[in-house]
Design goal:
about 475 residues; alpha/beta; uronate isomerase, domain 2, chain A; TIM Barrel; 19 helices; 10 strands
């Protein structure tokens, strides 16, 4: 019986298979957006068992387990690692049709050479076999990254972070691990007490006391410069939507003072403050020649009770309402009007927004830079077969697929890199099917640069990574 993960996996015709094996096998991974821990890479962490490596921090799996009736102690709780894995194995057969089923078996095959289907019947053997391998030097965090042919990766880092681990990795690890400037905490103002505590962290990191909105921006700029000195060339914003409301410097000064005094803001004040801060960061991005990424469209922490129990990024988020495209437009237009619009990648989480966001990106491409503003990869809940196929089709129809910067893992798991293979197979299948239909010509001089560009070359060029490789 042929293994589930085989050469033909996700490749529906001979043309698709030829494209994948001719153009994708052996090509490197440029992972410009992930949530891997720089500390764990710097320390070259070893995992004690498959549960640690596979279930720790993986809210995708936790959501599926909860949906399958698995109690929380087997997800984020303190149950025995073997018991947690057994409950995950119990859930896997129920994930048919979900990308978790694909990812699970790709990861078992590519990291461990295990081709058996995970189920309660195979759980113990797979757990023991993989756990034994994980305790060897060939399965440390750095080895796992190297094994997947990753050439460069960018983590996601708070402006107050010291970047000490990135600095140590520069001299101890041959694969560049670069920071990315994550702006979320700079505008997380819903709880003034939490925000004031964060300002104190920024003051310690920068050595500057925040006494006004101007000094707040000075602190951000100093941290931005520090990130730049440590190899950062990307910022990232993960907010529910774009914010835009005209503001004055005096208004921003007053709003920050209210926050420092633990006063609640009006909706308009909150909109003005977030708009002002994110526009200023965008101007810093332009000043230093960075690429800026905007991940919008999620409604986070919906289940208040479970959020209190388990905290953020544990699986209580969902796809949000269609985007406020007018605010996105005004935000980008304000930067373009002043000549300060940096290279920009727009990611959306609601598939109903695909066409709108792609065409919005097109509004701000003026011929100065190829794909100055572009549409980002299918993200989070859209990072699955249907979402990726729709993403490719929509981008090809309304933008320039050949300029697409490509796939990212967007993951906290060191076992997630086969998601690039998953994407590459779907990409080759999409193009192969279009060639079979006669919609795309099968000319090698046309197709090779298209595929190789999307899977790694475009990212190197777009982000200016060549000097790091």
């Amino acid at each position: 019986m042929k293994a589930y993960i085989n050469e033909e996996f996700l490749l529906g015709n001979n043309k698709s298979r030829r494209l994948y094996f001719d153009y994708c096998i052996g090509q490197p991974i440029i992972d410009f957006h992930c949530h891997l821990s720089p500390r764990e890479i710097a320390e070259d962490r070893m995992f004690n068992n498959l549960t640690e490596a596979w279930l720790e921090g993986d809210h995708y799996k936790w959501r599926a387990m909860r949906w399958n009736g698995i109690p929380e102690r087997f997800c984020t709780g303190n149950a025995d690692p073997k018991d947690k894995f057994a409950r995950w194995a119990e859930t896997v057969p129920f994930t048919i049709g979900n990308p978790l089923y694909h990812w699970t078996h790709l990861e078992l095959a590519r990291y461990f050479g295990i081709y058996k289907l995970l189920s309660p019947a195979t759980a113990r053997r797979i757990y023991n076999e993989a756990s034994t391998m994980l305790r060897s030097d060939e399965f440390s965090t750095r080895s796992l990254i190297t094994k997947m042919n990753v050439r460069l990766l960018c983590t996601t880092d708070d402006p107050a972070d010291s970047l000490e681990h990135h600095r140590s990795l520069k001299d101890t690890f041959r694969i560049p691990v670069l920071p990315a400037f994550r702006t979320d905490s700079l505008v997380r103002i819903e709880d003034p007490e939490v925000f004031r505590s964060y300002l104190e962290r920024l003051e310690i990191a920068s050595g500057i006391t925040i006494t006004s909105f101007d000094s707040f921006l000075e602190v951000i700029d100093k941290r931005h410069e520090w990130f730049h000195e440590n190899g950062c060339r990307l910022s990232d914003t993960g907010t529910e939507r774009f914010y835009f409301e005209p503001y004055t410097a005096e208004e921003c000064k007053h709003i920050l003072l209210k926050l420092q005094n633990l006063e609640t803001l009006s909706p308009t004040e909150s909109e003005k403050f977030k708009c002002a801060v994110l526009l200023e960061v965008a101007r810093m991005n332009h000043k230093r020649g960075w690429v800026q990424q905007f991940h919008t469209g999620a409604i986070r922490n919906n289940n208040s009770r479970m959020f209190r129990l388990s905290g953020p990024d544990t699986g209580w988020d969902s796809v949000g309402s269609p985007a406020d495209l007018r605010r996105m437009s005004r935000f980008l237009d304000a930067l373009d009007e002043s000549g300060q619009l940096a290279k920009t990648i727009l990611y959306n989480l609601n598939p109903a927004d695909n066409e709108a966001v792609i065409t919005m990106a097109g509004n701000f491409n003026d011929g100065s830079v190829p794909a100055r503003v572009q549409y980002g990869a299918a993200w989070w809940f859209l990072d699955q077969k249907n979402g990726i196929e729709r993403h490719l089709k929509d981008l090809a129809s309304l933008g320039l697929l050949r300029r697409f910067a490509g796939m990212v893992t967007d993951s906290r798991s060191f076992l997630s890199y086969p998601r690039h293979e998953y994407f590459r197979r779907l990409l080759c299948n999409f193009i192969g099917e279009e060639i079979e239909k006669g919609i795309i010509p099968g000319d090698e001089d046309l197709i090779r640069p298209l595929i190789e560009g999307i899977i790694y070359r475009n990212a190197i060029e777009y982000f200016g990574f060549a000097d790091h490789l």
